[in-house]
Design brief:
Strand content: 35-45%
Largest sheet: 5 strands, antiparallel
Helix content: 25-40%
Number of strands: 8
CATH class: Mainly Beta
Strand order of the largest sheet: 1-8-3-5-6
Shape: elongated
Distance between the termini: 7 Å
Number of domains: 1
CATH architecture: Sandwich
CATH topology: Jelly Rolls
Number of helices: 3
Radius of gyration: 16 Å
Mean pLDDT: 97
Order of helices and strands: EEHEEHHEEEE
CATH superfamily: YjbQ-like
């Protein structure tokens, strides 16, 4: 069993790949077979496994979620009550609720069993930069 906390510094809304850091953790742990649990310790960002070859995929996903859940100062979002931290606050919580804060990835042969074009991403839902913590837990 091995554990580590990764820190991802964001610059605002968008997807931030951290696959390389996770692959290094798995390699250093020297576990041949197991399950890696990836968990983000925040309520206004989330985790995704997504294509890492074409950056247009990340841009399109980011735009889709911005259109799906606009800021609370958008006329369509007048129903929102929680606005203490700005117009991106409650929409960030909604986006996190629609996605996931924990991902399980099998480890096979000492490596992440991700597909050829798959990568691990932190999906930042807030406008301002944040320092996000991601817990990695590798078990048998």
């Amino acid at each position: 069993m091995a554990q580590k906390i990764l820190t991802v510094q964001t610059r605002g809304q968008g997807l931030y790949e951290f696959t390389g850091d996770v692959a290094a953790f798995v390699r250093d742990a020297a576990v041949e077979e197991g399950l890696l649990t990836v968990f983000v310790r925040h309520t206004s960002c989330s985790l995704l496994i997504q294509e890492n070859a074409d950056p247009d995929v990340r841009r399109d996903l980011d735009q889709f979620f911005r259109r799906l859940v606009p800021p609370s100062d958008d006329p369509s979002m007048r129903w929102i009550v929680h606005t203490m931290e700005g117009p991106d606050d409650m929409p960030a919580h909604i986006k996190a609720a629609l996605t996931q804060v924990s991902i399980g990835v099998p480890v096979v042969g000492g490596r992440l069993a991700l597909g050829t074009w798959q990568g691990l991403y932190l999906f930042e839902h807030r406008d301002r930069p944040h320092r996000r913590e991601i817990v990695l837990h590798l078990g048998p």
